């Protein structure tokens, strides 16, 4: 008799060939889980044949189960995981790129700097609702499945983003205009809070062994492409429209574009398969009724959540400083034109897209820990020299400094999300990942433009962003040295 343990593929007993990893339709004695045959009914003898491997459940009336060679996750499942992240980052990018115009439309006043500051207050507020979204949507994802929750999140995110483009300005609606803007941003914050834990866990669980870094890096690349699209759109509008036209109706177009993008994303997510890891947990009765309570009841999971707060410090600050705050900083503090500021950001994003894809693939070979620590400490070493290049008034020097910082950032950004997904077991993955990550993002990311703007006004120093980047990189680099390597182990069950 030969029995497969279903996880390692090893057999015990007689000399029958072992059961190999492959996609197998679920039956009474087997089910799909991350592309592998797991836990055949205890002590049932099995036989296999080649080239198509047939698993016969001797003591079952079921038909033979045919185990095909391993098949990679459907493209629709991969796209389904990353499409929501794309829309989320597109919205954040657009908001940052038209912040100066939004300040005039929603927060008019005699002092432009005050209007920009209030605009970034409206930008920061939703980030403090992201942990709530992570707790609620993450719990639903661990209880009812990733796919269902992702469908709801993309619907909410699309509507709340698109409706920003339909809002009246302060001149037409008075104080109700900025209030409506903040309300929609809060709804966006709730949806965005649920997206990383569900979306990136969904991708990691579909990827299979040895490919998680590569597959999840697609979502990171999608964020850069989304920001690049927002940058190019904003640059096109600023280059072709007058200031009066931009303030009148031009600023609406990037937000309204989120509506058709969201409909396409919803269709893609509907075609995706549910996560095989969640499906397996559901079949085995391992789905918990209280994911959030269980997450906080485990010392190991709480430690993982704390690491999910600290590890992304450089990731959060780097994203919001380099890509969201940078266009406003270059225009208002470095006196570049709006188009020049957007061009520098666009070049950074183009370079970063390829950087995160390479980082994800490389981390599958060398490990997550090395990638995270190396990129963080490179920013510590190069952050101030690169920032000095930004302050010289030269477009070429500013571009050079920005590109080097973007490459340092790519090493972290391309690996961060898969690392966080690997820290937690399937039972509580989306809620634990989401809560930890969003608490850190709210404090050190979403508030970054507001904090940096306020500190520049208070101190008169344009070096504040550089200090912020370097300080968060130091903390993140130290945290990276303290985590266990997760790249070469199966996902926790």
TrEMBL record:
One cellular-component annotation, GO: plasma membrane
Entry keyword annotation includes Kinase: no
Keywords noted in UniProt: Cell membrane, Membrane, Symport, Transmembrane, Transmembrane helix, Transport
Record bears the keyword Membrane: yes
One GO MF term: symporter activity
Topological relation to the membrane, as annotated: Multi-pass membrane protein
Domain Major facilitator superfamily (MFS) profile as annotated: residue spans: 77-488
Major localisation: membrane
Localization in the cell: Cell membrane
Spans traversing the lipid bilayer: 82-107, 113-137, 149-167, 173-194, 215-237, 249-268, 305-326, 338-359, 371-390, 396-415, 435-457, 463-483
Region of interest (Disordered), residue spans: 1-22
Membership in a protein family: Belongs to the major facilitator superfamily. Metabolite:H+ Symporter (MHS) family (TC 2.A.1.6) family.
PANTHER family: ALPHA-KETOGLUTARATE PERMEASE (PTHR43528)
Protein name as it appears in the record: MFS transporter
Lineage of producing organism: Bacteria, Bacillati, Actinomycetota, Actinomycetes, Pseudonocardiales
């Amino acid at each position: 008799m030969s029995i497969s343990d279903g996880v390692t593929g090893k057999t015990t007993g007689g000399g029958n060939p072992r059961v190999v990893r492959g996609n197998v339709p679920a039956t009474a004695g087997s089910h799909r889980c991350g592309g592998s045959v797991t836990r055949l009914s205890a002590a049932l003898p099995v036989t296999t044949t080649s080239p198509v491997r047939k698993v016969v459940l001797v003591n079952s009336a079921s038909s033979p189960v045919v185990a095909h060679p391993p098949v990679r996750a459907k493209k629709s499942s991969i796209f389904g995981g990353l499409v929501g992240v794309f829309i989320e980052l597109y919205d954040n990018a657009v908001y940052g790129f038209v912040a100066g115009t939004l300040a005039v439309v929603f927060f008019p006043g005699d002092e432009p700097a005050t209007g920009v500051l209030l605009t970034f207050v409206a930008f920061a507020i939703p980030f403090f609702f992201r942990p709530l979204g992570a707790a609620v949507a993450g719990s639903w994802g661990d209880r009812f499945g990733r796919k269902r929750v992702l469908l709801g999140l993309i619907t909410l995110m699309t509507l709340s983003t698109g409706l920003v483009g339909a809002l009246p300005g302060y001149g037409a609606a008075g104080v109700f205009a900025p209030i409506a803007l903040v309300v929609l941003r809060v709804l966006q914050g709730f949806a965005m809070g649920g997206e990383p834990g569900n979306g990136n866990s969904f991708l990691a669980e579909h990827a299979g062994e040895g490919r998680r870094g590569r597959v999840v890096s697609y979502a990171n690349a999608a964020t850069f492409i989304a920001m690049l699209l927002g940058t190019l759109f904003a640059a096109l509008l600023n280059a072709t429209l007058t200031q009066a036209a931009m303030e009148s109706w031009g600023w609406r177009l990037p937000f309204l574009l989120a509506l058709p993008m969201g409909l396409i994303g919803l269709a893609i997510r509907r075609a995706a398969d549910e996560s095989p890891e969640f499906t397996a947990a559901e079949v085995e009765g391992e789905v918990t009724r209280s994911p959030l309570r269980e997450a906080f009841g485990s010392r190991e999971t709480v430690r993982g959540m704390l690491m999910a707060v600290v590890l992304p410090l450089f990731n959060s600050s780097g994203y919001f400083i380099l890509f969201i705050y940078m266009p406003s900083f270059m225009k208002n503090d470095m006196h570049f034109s709006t188009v020049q500021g957007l061009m520098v950001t666009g070049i950074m994003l183009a370079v970063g897209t390829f950087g995160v894809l390479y980082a994800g693939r490389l981390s599958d070979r060398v490990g997550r820990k090395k990638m995270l620590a190396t990129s963080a400490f490179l920013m510590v070493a190069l952050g101030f020299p690169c920032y000095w290049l930004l302050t010289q008034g030269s477009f070429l020097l500013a571009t050079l400094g920005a590109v080097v910082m973007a490459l340092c950032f790519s090493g972290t950004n391309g690996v961060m999300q898969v690392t966080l997904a690997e820290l937690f077991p399937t039972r509580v993955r989306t809620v634990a990942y989401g809560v930890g990550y969003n608490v850190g993002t709210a404090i050190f990311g979403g508030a970054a433009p507001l904090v940096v703007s306020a500190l520049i006004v208070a101190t008169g120093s344009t070096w504040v962003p550089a200090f912020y980047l370097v300080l968060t990189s130091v903390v993140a680099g130290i945290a990276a040295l303290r985590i266990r390597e997760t790249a070469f182990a199966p996902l926790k069950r």
